[in-house]
Request: fold
Amino acid sequence: MTMQYLLQLVISGLVIGSIYAAVALGFTIIYKATRVVNFAQGEFLMVGAYVCYAFLVQMHVPFWAALLLTILFALAMAVILERLVLRPMIGEPIISIIMVTIGLSLVLRSLVTAIWGNDILVYEPKLFPQETVSIGGIPVSQEFIWCFVLSMVLLAVFSAFFKFSKAGVAMRATAFNQQTAQSMGISVKSIFALSWIISAIVSGIGGVLIGNINGINSSLYHFGLKVFPATILGGLDSILGAALGGLIIGLLENLSDGICKSYLDLSGVKEVAPYVILVVILMIKPYGLFGTKEIERV
Amino acid sequence: MQYCGDFRTTYEKDVKIFQTPFIKICMGFLGVALLALPFLIKGEYLWIALQILIAVIGAVGLNILTGFTGQISLGQGAFLGVGAYTSAYLTAKMGLSFWVGIPAAGLVTAMAGMVFGVPSLRLKGLYLAIATLASQFILEWVFVRWEPVTGGSYGIVVPRPMIGGYSFESDRSYYYIVLAFTVVMTLFATNLIRTKTGRAFMAVRDHYISAEIMGISLYKYRLLSFGISSFYAGVAGALFGHALKFVSSEQFNIGVSIVYLAMIIIGGLGSIIGSVFGAIFMILLPKILSVVTETVAADIPSLAKLAISFEQGIFGLIIVLFLIFEPDGLAHRWRLIKAYWKLYPFSY
Reply:
C-alpha cells in the first residue's frame, strides 16, 4: 500500500465524513430539543437530493434557485411532519416514537421511489468544476473540496446559531428543561417545529452535496443509518460531537476498508466497521466523547 | 370473562392463567380449531398460518425482553438468523437430526444474545437500542461473509424434520410440529412472568434503581432476559429455516427486526396475548396489501408501478397511524372489548 493510496483514503473518508457530520447534526438537533430519535434522518437527505434533482434537471432551474427551493421544500415537509406525526406522540414511550419515525422513513422512501424510480440519476449540469487539483501531489476532485468546505460551513453556521442567536439559546433552554423554558416565555411548540425544520434543511443540503458527487439512487437513505455511530461517538446531544463523530466515522470506515482490502483480502468492511466502532465506544465511553452523562436522582 | 360473584380470595386464584371455566372452554375450542386448521385451509393460506405461528414465538421472545424487561432491541431479525443458520449448519452440513438442531439453535442464539446484551448493563433506553442496531448489522455482515458456515450469498438448503422413518415433508405435517413449539413456548412465557423471575423483569423495567435496592441483581436479570429472548428468537428462526427449506442472509435483515418490533408495539408491550395479536396483524398486513395492490394493478394498469412501489409506504403509514390513534396496542383494545361484553347490555 502506497502513501498516496493512504492519503486518498483519508481525503475521501473526510469528504464522506463531512456528509455524515451534516446528517448527524440534523439528528442531534432534533434529539437535543425534543428527545425524539429520528430514524428518518437518512430519508430527509434522500428527499432533499431528489427534490433538488427535480428542480435542477427536470425543471432546468439554475442551481442557486434549486437549492433555495429545496430548502423551502424541506422546511414545509418538516413543519407538516412535526405537526401531523410527531406532535401527537409527545409523552409516548421512547420505543413508540422510534417506531413512528421508522414508519415515517418507510413512507418517505416509497414516495421517493414511486416518483423517481430506482435508477441512478445524475445532476446535470454539474454544480462544481470537474478538473482535479493537486494537494500534496495527490489529485483531488474539486467536488470533494467543495463538498467538504460547504458542510464545514454549514456546521459552523449552526454551531454559531446555537451559541449566539436568540432562537438558538431558546432551543438550548428547551433541551435543558421544557417546563422552565415555557415559564420563561419560550414557545416550546415552535421550538420543536424549528428543530425539525433545521434538521430537515441541514440533511437536505447534505443530500444535494452527496448527490452532486455520486449521483442519487434509492439506497441513499443508508446515510441515515451511519448517523448512529457518528452521534454515539460524539455524544448524542452534542453539536460539536456530531460534527467530529461524523468526520471520524467517515475516516475510520474508509481507512479500515482500504486496509482490509489490501492486506487481508477482505471486502465489504465498510458496511460493518462503523458499527463495530460503535459497540466498542459504547463499552468504553457510554456517553460518547462530548455527551452529557445522565445523573439520576431518586 | 368474570361474572358477578367471582371473587379471588387467594393469591393462587389471582395468578391463575385460566381464570374461569368459560375461559377454559374457549381455550379448548381454540385448541381444536388450531388442530383442525390444516384440514380446512391449504396451499398459500397454510403457509401464512405457519408463518404466523413462527412469528408468535419470535414476538413473545422479543416481548419478554422489550415489553417485560424494558430493554429495547432492534436486533431480533439477526438473532432469528443466528438460530436459522445454527440449525441449518447442524442438520444440512453435519447431518444431525432436527431434534438436535432446534435446541442447539436456541442455545447458540441465547449465547449470542447474551454477548450482545452485555452493553445493556451500562446502557439504557436509546443507547441500548442503538447498540442492538449495531449487533443487527454486525451479524448480518457475518451471515454474508462467513462462507464456510453460512454458505455466503448462496445460502444453505435445509431439510424438513424426520421422526423414525416419517418425514414431515408436507406443510400440513410440519404445521403440527410448529404448533407444538408455539403452544409450549407461549405457555412457558405466560408462566415465566408469573414467577419470581418474571416479577424481577417487570421491576427492572418499571424502575431499575428501585429494583436494585430491593435486592434484584440487574446484571443477572438483564442478561437472563436477553438470553431467554434470544432463545425464543433462535427457535423461531430455526423453525422458519426448516419451513422455507432454505436459509439466506436476506431473510434476516433490519426490516425483519423492524417488523418484530412493530408486532409487539402494535400488539401491546408487556402482554403475551398482545404478541400473538401483533404477530397475526403484521404477518397478515403485507399479504393483504399485496392482494390489494395486485387487484389495483390488474384493474388500472397505469397505476401498477406506483401501487407496487407504494406497498412499503402504506405499510409504514399504517404503523404510524396505528401508533397515533391506538398507542396502547391491540391488547388494550381487546381488554376494552371484553369489558364491554362483560356488562352488555347494561354498561354504565
